[in-house]
UniProtKB/TrEMBL annotation:
<dbReference type="Pfam" id="PF00005">
    <property type="entry name" value="ABC_tran"/>
</dbReference>
<feature type="domain" description="ABC transporter">
    <location>
        <begin position="386"/>
        <end position="625"/>
    </location>
</feature>
<protein>
    <submittedName>
        <fullName>ABC transporter ATP-binding protein</fullName>
    </submittedName>
</protein>
<dbReference type="InterPro" id="IPR036640">
    <property type="entry name" value="ABC1_TM_sf"/>
</dbReference>
<feature type="transmembrane region" description="Helical">
    <location>
        <begin position="106"/>
        <end position="129"/>
    </location>
</feature>
<keyword id="KW-0812">Transmembrane</keyword>
<feature type="transmembrane region" description="Helical">
    <location>
        <begin position="64"/>
        <end position="86"/>
    </location>
</feature>
<feature type="transmembrane region" description="Helical">
    <location>
        <begin position="293"/>
        <end position="316"/>
    </location>
</feature>
<dbReference type="InterPro" id="IPR003439">
    <property type="entry name" value="ABC_transporter-like_ATP-bd"/>
</dbReference>
<dbReference type="InterPro" id="IPR003593">
    <property type="entry name" value="AAA+_ATPase"/>
</dbReference>
<dbReference type="InterPro" id="IPR039421">
    <property type="entry name" value="Type_1_exporter"/>
</dbReference>
<keyword id="KW-1133">Transmembrane helix</keyword>
<feature type="transmembrane region" description="Helical">
    <location>
        <begin position="323"/>
        <end position="345"/>
    </location>
</feature>
<feature type="transmembrane region" description="Helical">
    <location>
        <begin position="194"/>
        <end position="216"/>
    </location>
</feature>
<keyword id="KW-0547">Nucleotide-binding</keyword>
<keyword id="KW-0472">Membrane</keyword>
<dbReference type="InterPro" id="IPR027417">
    <property type="entry name" value="P-loop_NTPase"/>
</dbReference>
Amino acid sequence: MTSAETHEQQDTAPPFPPPAEITYSGQYSVNPLAEVSFRRMCAQIPKVLRRIARLSWRTDRRAVQLLLGCQVITGVSAAVLLTATAEAMEPILSEDAVADRLRSALPALMVVALAAALSRGAGSVATYAERRITPRLTTETDSAVVEAVCRVEAAAYAVDGFSDRQEAAEMGVIRTHVMVTDAQRFMSALIRMITAGGVLSVLNVLMLPLLLLAVLPAGVGAVLTARVDYETHYANVADRNVRGMMRWWATTSKYGDEVRANSMTDYLTYWYRALSDRCDRRTLAAAPRTLRISLLSSLAGGFFLVAVWGALAWLAVSGRIDLAVAATAVVAVQTTLAALSQVVINGAAVFHTSLYLGDMQSFLDDAADRAPQRGPRTVTGPVEEITLEEAVYQYPGKDKPAVDGVSLTLRRGEILAIVGANGSGKSTLTRLITGIYLPDKGKVAWNGTDLTEVAPATVWANTGLVPQIFAQWPLRVRENITLGQPRTHDDTPVWEAVDAVGLREAVDDLPAGLDTLLARDIFGGSELSGGLWQRVACSRALYRKPGLLILDEPTSQMDPRGEHGIFEQIKAIAADRITIVVTHRLENTKIADHIIVMEHGRITEQGSYDDLIHAGGTFAELLELSQDR
Ligand SMILES: Nc1ncnc2c1ncn2[C@@H]1O[C@H](COP(=O)(O)OP(=O)(O)OP(=O)(O)O)[C@@H](O)[C@H]1O
């Protein structure tokens, strides 16, 4: 094709398709705030304050005690400050000589100065205490979310909305950065408001309700705005989740070659921007609503504020309160007003936080419910036999089972090969055998014990799995091999595992041998080739010396020498364990004692290699195709 033709084709090509509309359905697609009344929303604030206090208490008791002490000092100093101001006003506004007025007011003024200093000091110490709590609280909640996800039954990943709820929970973690600050500011403003309001009520009983009316619209406005923000956030959760995943895929150096050499950059950046624009559109669509809320609440607040000052002026001018009291009232009104505004702003922030914390908590609760609850029995001793009886497994949302009534017996010392077309259920079958998934129907038993009754950790202590797609951990070579096993100071078994997969030369070539960090992106890190990574994954499984060894396409990226070495090794250690090899390279199944052929989730043929090549079935056909070049 000439370059002119290429250009012409590009000119006439249809525009990029926009990202798919991502909406998940089911119970989690409903915004939990949609039906909630304003009163119920406000009622959440004390609840969330208690939760923040509980979380903080668990994180750092002394800092919480310090924080509470500071709150008390703030409140007391606010009351002392106002009372002393009232005392100072009387002599200051009297008819005496200036020097006498100042002398008489001096003790009260000194109390004012001391109370102000105390209040400021308490504020600074409270900030210090809050800074001690916040980072650890964030780490606690963040780690709780990570741990919860790692500990759920693997089947939970396929449940509708699980990953979006995880994304929503992440927002709760982010909010923990500001939640103690918000709660602390809310509490100290509340205390200042109560004390200043109390003093004000003593001066004139009418003032407090008027002041409340002046700030209440701002409070209502702030809570309603938080509600709108949350609605937008909720509508964007699924898109943000996918955008986050795509961001990682598009920017991680592992896929950099593919992105560049296949000229994917334009579409990926367009896609990313289009999804961001979609989120922005939802956010912008909400802006007029928040503007309306803000304007209306300011208008109502302004009206009542004018009424407050008007009332104060009227009380003073009509002689209902004397000038000294009026002057103190001005200070009290200012203090109460500032405190009330802070209460309202921080109260709304606490409410806003409560929404995200609620999501986080409900995700953690859901994840706890999805943690394995299988039974207390354990797998002890060597794995002698694994049996499957009519095992069926269907992924959520799928209309056909991935494994559909498989019966099988595996005995120690045997090698089983599983073959079959893509999507025929091979990997799912291995997940059932290892107990990663429990069958919907039928039974999987290890040494005669049904896996539904066995604590899964005791099963997985006996398994070694090389999955088709394995993780390339950004850890040192040593940890990449020993990951999942108890730590040991002795490198001998690590080197044995390295030698078993023919990796010694490559490890010796690395700058720091077993201590080399296998992460190209990190300073000082190194990278391995695809085949060498696959050898690392195999050595990880062999290092475990498992009772059940499962290798799902373990050598797909290896050179023939490497592949031969691995299969020799599998044969050499097969006597002590059950071994399963999933492969499309049918030649490799020669090492197996027994081969099963899967089609549409069922076993359609089985036998030894020689049986199957002469049976004239799918196996023989696939083998012939693989040799037809
Ligand atoms: N996590 C999952 N969620 C939903 N469906 C899945 C999941 N994993 C696999 N499936 C579906 O289950 C069926 C069997 O998949 P499985 O991965 O077990 O096949 P396989 O034989 O190992 O395929 P391959 O040879 O391509 O590795 C397929 O229809 C697949 O789409």
